[in-house]
Amino acid sequence: MENYQNILVVIDPTTNEQKALNRAIDLASKINSSNEDHSKVKVSAFLCVFDFSYEMTTILSSDERDVMRQSVIKDKEFWLENFIKELDSDIEIDCQVVWHNRPFEAIIEQVIEQNYDLVIKSTHQHDKFKSVIFTPTDWHILRKCPCPVLLVKEHEWPSNGNILASVNVGSDEAEHHSLNIKISTEAKKLASLIEANVHLVNSFPGTPVNIAIEIPEFNSTEYNDSMLKHHEKAMITHANQFDISVVNTHVEEGLPETVIEQVASKLDAELVILGTIGRTGISAALIGNTAEHVIDQLNCDVLALKPDGYISPLAK
């Protein structure tokens, strides 16, 4: 797992239960044990703090406000360093505390400046309506972070568990093909590291409702059967490239987010790996990405990967 040698863990200031940090320590320990060159994974605990009241203290000078901010940062650094010491872990963990009013920007800036290989962050349930207007930090990171993002939930990573890799084998687009390869490769590597089984899932759309209504003679059953066979054939071809048993492939009709959640639940998967194309702007707010629709429905971790060559909009 030479990919993940420099990991950024986002600390949640609202709780003492740091699920992301615990996952990072566990993952780093497994990677260190598997590294033949005895290299050690670097883990950085990152905390972004901001209090608008300090910015509004107009009676103070700019220098005095800066002193107040630094005092808050020092206090949080002290808390974080002590928290890490109490973990009594063999993994070397450094602390970073920054003052920033937009956490996702602070996180992505760190990733770009320090060349992190992976961001690990715990997740929170999002309100469906607010998520369209006020995009949560998780969603911003999924769209704009140039490196893989692991969103952690409550599910443990037991030995001989299941990793579910979501692929789009029915598409002829080069971007989807290369992302399928990347997702499946990552699934195999992680499965070897944490002693898990790899499953592949692919969804396909059923008969469009407007066609069924407007063209009565259209045979929807025949159409669905044809689509299923096309995707099953493509799935077998893809699975064979990675020595994944056909028994561990799942091709079902439906929306990706629905199919992924149902298969993950059936398998009691510990991790779902999928791709996100990093859509931004109005289309992202109204349509969203499959990864974003999935994260709230799953009770397991989600690893989101970007296509090769992706450049973050925050890159200078």
N to C succession of SSEs? EHEHHEHEHHEEHEHHEHEHHE
> What would you call the shape?
globular
Low-pLDDT regions = 282-287
Strand content: 15-25%
The third-level CATH topology of the largest domain is Rossmann fold
Distance between the termini: 29 Å
List the strand order in the largest sheet: 3-2-1-4-5-10-9-6-7-8
Mean of all residue-level pLDDT scores: 85
Total strands? 10
- Helical coverage, percent range: 40-55%
Model description:
The protein folds into two domains: 1-122, Rossmann fold; 157-316, 3-Layer(aba) Sandwich (Rossmann fold), CATH 3.40.50. The longest helix has 26 residues, at 62-87. The protein is α/β, with parallel strands linked by helices and 316 residues long. It is built from twelve helices and ten strands. The chain is globular and about 75 Å long. Mean pLDDT is 85; it is low at 282-287. The two termini are 29 Å apart.
Q: How would you summarize this macromolecular structure in one to three sentences?
A:
The protein is of the alpha/beta class. It has 12 helices and 10 strands. It is globular, with a radius of gyration of 22 Å.
Topology diagram in text:
Elements: E1 6-10, H1 19-34, E2 42-49, H2 52-55, H3 62-87, E3 93-99, H4 103-114, E4 118-122, H5 130-133, H6 137-144, E5 149-152, E6 161-166, H7 174-194, E7 196-204, H8 209-214, H9 220-241, E8 249-253, H10 256-267, E9 271-275, H11 282-286, H12 290-295, E10 301-305
Parallel strand pairs: 1-2, 1-4, 2-3, 4-5, 6-7, 6-9, 7-8, 9-10
Antiparallel strand pairs: 5-10
Helix pairs in contact: 4-6
